[in-house]
From TrEMBL:
The lineage of its organism: Eukaryota, Fungi, Dikarya, Ascomycota, Pezizomycotina. This is NAD(P)-binding protein. It comes from the Eukaryota.
């Protein structure tokens, strides 16, 4: 296989940083991007090209950044939409601006970056777009509604994109990680909001404490294993060799079990309520 050219958002830590290192180790080229250019210096020293890119910038600004990215190697073969963050808090505590900021980064930012790259892939009639969703794109946990909502939205818009663009030779991959041991829940990345509404206050405090004591740095998933699978799927080697690469793939036992349980519950509901669900059609004309 000829070396691929990857562009990845959110490379200052976590999956993004690991992905850059593993891509380089496989002989591909990569353009690592992030909001703060200085935080990408170690990746640049490893052989990656780097660009400043903030997914919340304007469409015009992101279009210009992608033009610069394409000029580096003459093309982009793979776009990985990785940048995201999590805002926690009860519905009644999160202000409109906080909801908007969550969706701006996790949904609208993804839309803008993808829109900037799509004409290039469509013209070449080739390419792969990888979207990092989440277990939270299937299941909404208490105090995580803003983040879950953004990932549920991502699942829908990407599924639509898949059907729009597959005719142009563009492959779409939706990766749904569970809880992996990155810095995603570290104090520098996680945005928490303690409730001061009496009815929520204790549960909110317990939730924040639980994340700090039992989740941050203690997640069960190995991010390196996840990254290796993602690269295999794109390159059609390793675990993906000789297989039809799926549109979406959950990663992590916790994500697998959550999705399996939800699917089983949904099938059970449909069976039990089929008569009601299908009773709303107008009478058929004979």
């Amino acid at each position: 296989m000829a070396p691929l050219v990857w562009l990845i958002t959110g490379c200052t830590s976590g999956f993004g940083s690991l992905m850059v290192q593993q891509i380089l180790s496989r002989g591909d080229k990569v353009i690592a991007t992030g909001r703060t250019l200085s935080k990408l210096s170690s990746l640049q020293e490893s052989g990656a090209a780097v660009l400043q890119l903030d997914v919340t910038d304007s469409q015009q600004s992101l279009n210009a950044t992608i033009v610069k990215a394409i000029a580096i190697y003459g093309r982009i073969d793979v776009l990985v939409n990785n940048a995201a963050y999590i805002q926690t808090g009860a519905w009644e505590d999160l202000e409109y601006g906080e909801w908007l900021a969550e969706f701006d980064a996790n949904v609208l930012g993804v839309i803008k970056v993808t829109r900037a790259v799509l004409p290039h892939l469509r013209e070449r009639k080739a390419g792969t777009i990888v979207f990092l969703s989440s277990r939270s794109g299937w299941y909404g946990d208490a105090f995580c509604s803003a983040y879950s909502g953004s990932k549920f939205a991502l699942e829908g818009i990407v599924e639509g994109l898949r059907w729009e663009t597959e005719q142009f030779g563009i492959k779409t991959l939706m990766i749904e990680p569970g809880r992996f041991r990155t810095k995603f829940l570290s104090p520098g990345n996680l945005r928490t909001k303690q409730s001061h509404i009496p009815d929520y206050e204790e549960a909110s405090r317990n939730f924040i404490a639980y994340l700090a004591q039992n989740e941050d740095g203690k997640q069960p998933g190995d991010p390196l294993k996840a990254v290796e699978i993602i690269l295999d799927l794109v390159r059609k080697e390793g675990v993906a060799e000789g297989k039809e690469v799926p549109f979406r793939l959950p990663l992590g036992r916790d994500c697998y079990e959550t999705i399996k349980e939800k699917c089983e519950e949904t099938l059970k509901l449909l069976k039990e309520w089929e008569g009601v669900c299908t009773s709303t059609d107008l009478p058929r004309k004979e």
